[in-house]
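Appendix B, record 7
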Amino acid sequence: MKNNKTKAAMLKRLLDISAAVANFKDLDILLEKILSQAREIANADAGSIYIKEKNMLHFRVTQNDTLSKLLPPGKKLQYSYFSMEIDNSTISGYAANTGEILNIKDVYKIDKNAPYNFGKKYDEKTNYRTKSMLTIPLKTNIGQIAGVLQIINAKNASNKLIPFSKSLIPVMEYFANSATISIERAQMTREIILRMIKMAELRDPKETGAHVNRVGSYAVEIYEKWALKNKIDVLDIERNRDILRIAAMLHDVGKVGISDIILKKNAKFTPEEYDEMKKHTILGANLFGEMNSEVDVAASQIALNHHERWDGKGYPGYVDTFTGKPVEGRLLEDGRPAEKKEREIPLFARIVSIADVFDALASPRIYKEAWTEDEVLKAIKNGAGTQFDPELVDCFFETYDTIKSIKNRYE
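Structure tokens (predicted):
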């Protein structure tokens, strides 16, 4: 009877976790959630997720409690992104190639006859000791491999390292299958967004997939730092990170409605051309005007307001997103829309403003070289209180080591 109750409790927990994971829409945020939940189920100290593309495995996310505890408060574990060909020589490659689950008690004592081996470089570099490892291929409904979930160093109730239990395998296999469905859906969402960006890129060479991925990732890090400092509920932070990551990528999608003559001009805009260019904010907000979801609301707010300034000297000000005319009661004497300033500008837009300007300055463009790191950081710092929310500028600098890592990831 007790055993049945235990199984029922585990099943309910799995269903609850799977339902929670399914709510995430952005691929990167989803992978973080999947890994943290997998580690929670198995009480694992660390883990990684690899995503498969053609015959390659791409290292996407890692977590390690032991190493994270060694960092200063508020700092995140930094790691290198890499890809490798799928073959049987590595543990993750073997799982992806064969579709088999591998439960290894000690990766330093793998049978010499096994085709795979454990790479010790990460352990040697970090002084970490990987021992037990459970590697599970992420299989789609039709049996194709979408990636690999790898959890490391199982612990008992006393935090002593132990092998992963054989009874855990069917539980983790069920979770992995459920997670793969969510991954496929998130990949489809990401692909649709990147296709929209590709349309914008055909018009504006500055608007690339790498640029919007960087801006979205920077924005999430700045937001998380701000949210923790302001004691926002953890569940709200998770939900908002997911929403912001997608919405931030769409900040300039309104440029599809701007003339090529203006977008591709390599000289300074005339005042008339600049006024026309400013309309991309309204056009972008209009694309999400029906507001069917929280992502639509956030994307509309960001598109409309990411060129507003903390001191009120940005654009477009208080305008109706459908007509482009000033909002009733928000009209200046000269007929222009009233300015938005400070916290009148939505939080997500204030965040994306910093992320977008940082990436624009730090990246080479057709018409300019990338600024040096010192020049970029000086510009961001000097913009605090005029162009940017000073509190968010502080958050930017407090998470700058992570932002640098993201910049290297999306070259």
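Remarks on this record: The beta strands are 44-53, 56-64, 83-85, 102-104, 133-139, 145-155, 161-162. The chain has a mean pLDDT of 90.
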